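Database export, one record per block. Field names are fixed; values are copied verbatim from the stored entry.
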Amino acid sequence: SELLSDFSLETYPNPNNGDFIISSSHEGTFNLVNELGQLIQTIEISTENNFETKMEGLNQGVYFVTGIVNDEVIIKKVVVN
């Protein structure tokens, strides 16, 4: 099995104005949640979208991209100004 150190999840630009890219080194399903823990969107990362997806039009606030990779929970904070 691959080590988690091989895994990367990037969000850019961060902070941003509501439009940003989520890029992952591995396939997976990730959730975008707000600071209240409410699910905003489920994100599928795969070879079909070249391991990245664009988020658009988010309101100001703090968001978290969460997912499970190799049984480890990944959390990435995103700030929308």
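Remark 1: The radius of gyration is 12 Å.
Remark 2: The first strand starts at residue 9 and ends at 12.
End of record.
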